[in-house]
Design brief:
The structure is a homodimer of 718-residue chains.
Chain A (H helix, E strand, L loop, with lengths): L21 H5 L15 E7 L5 E7 L1 H4 L4 E5 L21 E2 L5 E7 L2 H9 L2 E6 L6 H4 L28 E3 L9 E9 L2 H6 L3 E9 L11 E6 L5 E5 L4 H12 L6 E5 L14 H11 L3 E4 L2 H7 L6 E9 L5 E11 L9 H7 L9 E8 L14 H19 L3 H7 L19 H9 L2 H4 L8 E10 L6 E7 L5 E5 L7 H13 L6 E5 L16 H28 L6 E4 L2 E4 L7 E2 H8 L9 E6 L7 E11 L6 E11 L6 H21 L23 H4 L2 E7 L13
Parallel strand pairs in A: 1-13, 11-12, 15-16, 19-20, 26-27
Antiparallel strand pairs in A: 1-5, 2-4, 2-6, 3-5, 7-8, 8-16, 9-14, 10-11, 10-13, 14-15, 17-25, 18-19, 18-24, 21-22, 22-23, 25-26
Helix pairs in contact in A: 6-7, 14-15
């Protein structure tokens, strides 16, 4: 393994450092949501549908309610939901079950065991309906409807940067019963360009449903507050989104809903908002605190995994390998609830990091009797990469042009129009591709043993952005506290502390990061979309700059020296050239928190980056395929990532390793499969083939390239 | 009763409105600190000394520890205190007991009853020492020392604006054994001026120890955090002070101590920091959450009441009643712990609202075997008023000049030097005095029935100031959330909401105030010293102004209209003259919390007022005195208060009524008396004569005068 590091600064930027919260996690001291005690807690256990599609005839709760310690058995009618739409507004099935595992009742018990006993005592009478499970079968005109009744749908597509120019609804009369939406994304005269190409390749690619594989299953606790409000402690990546959803569902004022994130046990996009409506409904209905913690099996059966996509694509090029057109259709399996399905994203992302002059892509969002779809590490980007990169390799072979050369010839020029109509920002296309192509493995690709092969691929996530606020306060001892209403994930607390330290001019040990709840912390975006360091980090840099200026102003008054002639070194403010006249930050901290004449030092930043920060990744692998069994073994894995400046190389490396492992799973092993009746056949970690350490151990090269300037260096300019 | 109101604004400034939190309190839903459940909680009950002064020979814990459910019996040696000084560093007596009721051990039990049983089982062997209880006896050279061993003392005087010019330590060799400190406060040639006066009056005035009489006894809960930090939930007026003290005592980094204030059940200065060191020590020693909740009797016996002061004063004047000099001595009973005793304050406050050309006041801080002293509604101001106003009346009689005239002749000119060397700001001296003097009761004072009398008095609290930070955020629904790390008290949440609403231009119902904990909220000062509305209110006004500007900027972009041409009316931003083109605040809230292009609206204020805001109060009463029994009945009570602009007249009136009631108690009833052996003889509400409603019902006139401009109207100018 080789890791290339940027120049490291004294503050810690560029230095690999352990995550601040790691000790509490590895020693078992960290309290996750399910660990936090709550007096008067009721435990909720779900009665889940065994049918993928059925009508609920009746629910008999009497036997369950007779069990001592069973507080209530809630069904849809009991939930105090007043507004909202989509899956959130239907945390228990109304009268129609639309996937196997869907909760139809919630038993509240004084203990989890009692509630579980209660689940056994709830008798649900179902009338099975025809289910539709296969994506392609679902769009046949003869297909049974995956949902008979009405459903109000909505989409989260905005986070992932969907939309833009060149997008139009396809209107060819009534849509097939399970087609929720069709859209055409086009630019230029793609069909004509394809017809005039020197070479054209076609292919069909399907990626199955994938579970995000987080360690901590979905869990949340909710409790009514004495003032009529509602508080939640949840394993969520998005406290403000949860607040907004809960506010809307129960028609509560936003500021009477308080959402706090627990110590986070993994999500990868799956924990934006899923379980909270059910838990909040129950707490309001019962008037007591309620927790629902999914078991592992429930999490497999009833969460929001990454949906299946099927691509039918044609890629054309001229004799030099310059792309002429990309055309085709993408089927997106939205499952039973299209709320969070990335249907609209697929149409603009399919091109990955390449520039196309013409394209014509139809997206078809399809309803099936599977769970609702969720996000997973750059929704649709990974699947698109599989499809397009396979075609690029075929095209290269057909043209007899080196596949790296073909890729380089289609790198976008900065400013040229992307498929979504936005101009291409500078991206690390060449840097990442070159990094893997210059690896000795690529040069030696022809010399591999029989049954082995070497391949490379390039992918891109276009990035996301959301406004973020942060404050940076000086404590009475001269330390800094950074606060924002975000969720610590993937070591972001550590990164945030480093950014604040760098900008302020101290060591990151003097910075504490508080990820506050929605009641009092600055508004921040979702911890997801690859945007925490980019968006929140920028706001933190602004806040730390502000705090630094305030501190220098105080020091200037105390020392009677112009601010411009002061510097912060070794936790002191020193006059340039006269370090012995320094005043310590601790002394300033005491002054600004005392009885005047200084106001508290409160640095503030609230910003939104003007553009997205796309990230390109390249992978180079050597594999051995057993021609008899099809077993594929990864022998070498080289990854290159365009990450901007690596603020904490250890965390970048961790992300790259994690991403590589997950790509191995998606490419070779994972499939959250249902049988034809819609029954999950891979619903435990025994049957669901998450790659193990052995299957990911081949990572022998990691590198990153600087494709962008450092966002936190120009904080004021945003 | 008549109340004079200022002009009311649409936002609610000047409008009497109920306290936001009142419903939760009057319906019993509010959770005070002792009500908040805490899993794994240990209850602490104190073993208290029966002697006022004694040496601890031994403590036998075996019997207590044998009781099932008694977790531990802590003595001084068990406490993990590493730093600090004064009473805080000695939450259990070391080897010497210095007041009756002092905790000498803490029993931790699984229930409060078990801990109480444990207290019975702790056998302490004391060697009684001579105690000294009387203030005057304590300064005799023959007096026994109130403390034999060493004690490190410190003072809180800064909050109350002590110090300044003309103050010098008195050094006449060794001080008497119980005199902690002597200081001389002088200006001009006071003795000569007194000798040349046309009239001189002398008097000795003693005010006894007074309990602040809060409803909720002292209580705090502390628990160790998994990361090695410590959290506290406390009934405190000063979360940041508590944090600092705990950090110092246990040598914990400031930011690993988190202090949250509970719903506050009254303090009047008594809850700055008292019980927290004991509770925190126990939690750290036990490694579990610990709560100590004083019983009423314990609170009488072992808290920090308002100390006794004795004044020996001489006041001189010329024939017109113009004061020539104030001279004399003030004894301040600091009890056993002088930490929070207002000794240094008395010297500059004794002159009240009057201007003196010459003065010479000696302050003598005395140690006795009583509890430690604490603050109470403007420390030393009330007692000084009693002394000086009595002398002023005598002087008026001696000179044959109307007492109102004499007072008016000694009103300070703005800018003239006060006794503390600071220039007099504008004060409401004439306005408040005139307000009561113009009341019909004053004109009719000669016509009262036999045994009745009419008197008036004028007092002043010089004010305090402390830097404060606040943020004002726009929520996704367009509402505002104001956050600061302060403690809601006397309706300040309501006032803060009104200030934010006024400045922003919305109704106060759209504002929610969050009093945050020390981990994430902006630094704010103590809720005390008459400075919350003045200091924090100013910061909130700055923050709301900032938020407003940010909102107008967004609206200007959305509407493509210059910011200067926009106004906020009815929860909308409207172009002046084109109200139909408005954009709602809710729409703006959604935009600034979504996916750009706008940053979140985060208004910030951090400020410290440039000068103090003294407040003058005048009282006019008619009393009937039974010449045989001495029983005094208040028949009429007229109060005038200089409060600046009354932001919420209902709260100002509440403060005036409360202050009047407490003055009745101090003047006529209350005395937290000890016998000669230092045993408390008035340690319950049966024996301690807190005035009842009947004794305070005579308030028949309340008014206020505007002595200052509105602090929150010129927020930027500070």
């Amino acid at each position: 393994m080789s890791v290339v590091t940027d120049g490291a600064s004294a503050s810690g930027v560029g230095v690999a450092r352990p995550r601040i919260e790691a000790p509490s996690k590895v020693t078992g001291h960290a309290r996750y949501v399910a660990d936090v005690p709550m007096p008067g807690l009721l435990h909720g256990r779900m009665v889940m549908s065994p049918f993928a599609h059925a009508r609920i005839i009746s629910i008999d709760r009497s036997e369950a309610l007779a069990i001592p310690g069973v507080h209530a058995v809630l069904i849809w009618e009991d939930l105090p939901i007043k507004g909202g739409a989509g899956r959130a507004a239907e945390p228990l099935a109304r009268d129609e079950v639309v996937f196997a595992g869907q909760p139809v009742a919630l038993v509240l018990g004084e203990t989890e065991a009692i509630a579980e006993d209660g689940v056994e005592g709830v008798l649900v009478d179902y009338e099975p309906l025809d289910e539709v499970v296969d994506l392609r079968a679902a769009i046949e005109t003869s297909a049974p409807p995956a949902r008979v009744g009405d459903s109000e749908d909505e989409s989260d597509a905005e986070m992932h940067g969907a939309g833009g120019e060149g997008q139009s609804a396809v209107d060819e009369g009534a849509l097939p019963v399970n087609v929720i939406d069709r859209k055409l994304f086009s630019g230029g005269e793609a069909e004509r360009a394809l017809a005039g190409s020197d070479a054209v390749v076609h292919g069909r690619f399907r990626v199955p449903w994938i579970h995000q594989g987080y360690l901590e299953p979905q869990v949340a606790t909710a409790w009514p507050e004495p003032d009529g409000g509602l508080s939640l402690l949840s394993s969520t990546q998005a406290v403000f989104w949860v607040r907004q959803e809960i506010s809307r569902l129960f028609e509560l004022p936003l500021n009477s809903v308080r959402v706090r994130a627990g110590t986070f046990g993994g999500g990868f996009g799956a924990k934006l908002r899923l379980i909270e409506p059910l838990v909040a409904s129950a707490a309001l209905a019962a008037g007591r605190p309620v927790r629902v913690a999914f078991t592992r099996s429930e999490d497999f059966a009833a969460a929001n995994p990454c949906p299946s996509l099927e691509f039918d694509l044609a890629l054309g090029a001229d004799a030099d390998g310059r792309f002429t057109a990309l055309t085709g259709r993408i089927l997106i399996d939205c499952g039973a609830f299209p709320d969070s399905a990335p249907a609209a994203l697929a149409g603009t992302r399919v091109g990955g990091p390449y520039h196309f002059d013409t394209w014509s892509i139809e997206t078809v969002a399809v309803r099936t009797n599977r769970f609702g779809a969720g996000a997973y590490r750059g929704p649709t980007a990974t699947q698109s990469t599989f499809a397009v990169e396979s075609l690029v390799d075929e095209l290269s072979a057909k043209l007899g042009v080196d596949p790296v050369t073909v890729r380089l010839r289609n790198a976008p020029e900065t400013g040229a129009k992307r498929m979504d109509g936005i101009g291409w920002p500078p991206i690390g296309f060449r840097e990442t591709l070159t990094a893997v192509a210059e690896h000795p493995l690529w040069a030696a690709r022809a010399d591999v043993a029989p049954g082995e092969g070497v391949g490379l691929a390039l992918g891109m996530f276009p990035g996301a952005k959301q406004g973020a606020g942060a404050v940076c306060r000086m404590d009475a001892d001269g330390g800094l506290t950074v606060v924002s209403g975000y969720v610590d994930m993937t070591g972001t607390d550590t990164t945030i502390a480093t950014i604040a330290a760098e900008v302020f001019g101290i060591s990151s040990e003097m910075v504490r990061v508080v990820a506050g709840d929605t009641s009092g912390a600055p508004q921040a975006g979702v911890s997801g979309g690859s945007m925490v360091t980019y968006c929140l980090g920028s706001a933190v840099a602004v806040a730390a700059t502000d705090a630094r200026q305030q501190v220098l102003k105080v020091a200037a008054q105390e020392l009677e020296i112009d601010e411009a002639d002061l510097e912060i070194v070794n936790a002191e403010v020193r006059p340039l050239g006269s370090p012995h006249k320094a005043i310590s930050l601790a002394a300033i901290g005491a002054k600004v928190t005392g009885f005047g004449p200084y106001a508290p030092v409160e640095g503030h930043g609230s910003s939104v980056p003007p553009e997205l920060a796309p990230s390109v990744a390249a992978a180079l692998v050597r594999v051995r395929v057993d021609r008899d069994t099809g077993e594929t073994q990864i022998l070498e894995y080289v990854a290159a990532q365009d990450c901007g400046r690596a603020i904490n190389p250890a965390l970048v490396e961790g992300q790259m390793r994690g991403g590589a492992a997950q790509s191995v799973g998606i490419a070779l092993y994972e499939d959250l499969a249902h049988d034809d009746a819609g029954q999950l056949v891979a619903g435990t970690f025994m049957s669901y083939a998450l790659p193990r350490e052995a299957e990911c151990a081949a990572q022998n090269g990691l590198t990153w390239a600087r494709g962008r300037t450092h966002p936190f260096r120009q904080p004021i300019g945003w």
